Structures are given as structure tokens and as C-alpha cells.
Amino acid sequence: MRTPIxxxxxxxxxxxxxxxxxxxxxxxxxxxxxxxxxxxAPFTALAALKEELAGTDIAIGAQNMHFEEQGAYxxxxxxxxxxxxxxxxxxxxxxxxxxxxxxxxxxxxxxxxAALAAGLVPIVxxxxxxxxxxxxxxxxxxxxxxxxxxxxxxxxxxxxTVIAYEPIWAIGxxxxxxxxxxxxTIAIIRxxxxxxxxxxxxxxxxxxxxxxVKPENIASYMAxxxxxxxxxxxxxxxxxxxxxxxxxxxxx
Length: 252
Ligand SMILES: O=C[C@H](O)COP(=O)(O)O
Fold this sequence. Notes:
The protein is an alpha/beta fold. It is 45% helix and 15% strand.
């Protein structure tokens, strides 16, 4: 039985003060157990968020990191810098990073390896564009991205990671994938993990759906056998909405 995981991805939203205000509200209303809770905040808000959430079961995550331990990489952040703050998760290979910041399967792989070495849990994002979907390429795209992300990683490490299937056409558009379609692609991703790393690993790895998930539709995704939670952008920005998503994940 896989524990559901609801991760908020704030993207480039919220100052430190706004993050603190969110945390105070979330703390006050955080009464759901049996769901792993993560907020992936901008780098600048992570320390404040960690401080506010101390003593709660809400973990914090980053939205990116560099794969080197240190060096002359102006503007970058390493895994150990994140660890020092108390970060536990890191989103890697989000489609916005692939689209706007030249992230490739190769750099995602290097980051996955570095994150695991540092003891961070990667949330590895995969997903097809609308053009790829319409061309019938969804299965090939998620296979290539999944195999690429985990190249050279061992089965035990893969089992403890999180994968987020996010069809690009569903991100921030209000056009969510149907729960059945999302489950079908997530089952393909799970079978790729099974082929590469064995059935036990495939059964353990958590695979989220992401793309216009809201309190109103979370239960439909959680009702699907292969969907283990959600990576949520817009609807994670308000504490009450985030807590409703968490509560909705118990319907599994
Ligand atoms: O990482 C989160 C996804 O990009 C989904 O964003 P959204 O929930 O705003 O559609």
C-alpha cells in the first residue's frame, strides 16, 4: 500500500512573508493524517517556511537544484545547500524548466543522481505536449523521459523516489486530463519502472498526477489504482485549498 503524497508546487509565487502566512494557516487547519504533505517553494522562502512548519508533518521541497556539489555556477543552488535548510524533496525536470531553461533528460538524470546522493527525494516530472499527444506519442515520450531520468540509478533508490506525470497541455490551463487517461499513462510509467528495476520497485514507487488538480477533482484521481497523489500548482497557493486537496487524498 503506497502512502498518497500531495505536493504543492508554488512555482514563482510567494515572498517570505506570504509563505509564513500560508504556513500559519496550514498549521492551524492541518488535521488529516495518512497523507504525505509537501510544499515546494521558491528558494528564497524555504528557510522561513521550514521555521514556520517545524513540528508539523508538512515537509518542504525545492523546485530545482544544480547537479554539482559546488563550483563556479553563478545563480545556482546545490543539494547540500537545500539539505542544510531542512529541505526533503526536490522537483526535477518540470516541463517549465524543460521548456524555458533548457532542462534535458541528461541534466534531469544528473540532478536525480545528485539529489539521491545528498538524501533528497526527487519528484521527477514527465509528460507529453499536446502535439505529442495528438500524434499518439504519449507512451514513447514518458518512456524516454522515465528511462532517461533514472539511468544509472539502482532499484532501491528508484523505489523511494516520486514521479509526477504532468501532461503539459493540462498545466495551468484548467483542462485536466480525465482520471482514466491519467491512470492509463501512469500505468505505462509504472510498467517502464517494472521492466527496468523489477516489479517490487514498480509497486513501491509513488506516481502522482499533475495538471489542473483542484479540491473538486482530487477524489476522482485518487480513485484510480495507479495514481498515488498529485503535484499541484495553482490550487496549492491557498492554505485552505491545499488542505482540502490533502483531505481529498484520503479517499484512496
Ligand atoms: O507542478 C505543478 C503543475 O505544473 C500543475 O500546475 P497547475 O496545478 O497549476 O495546473
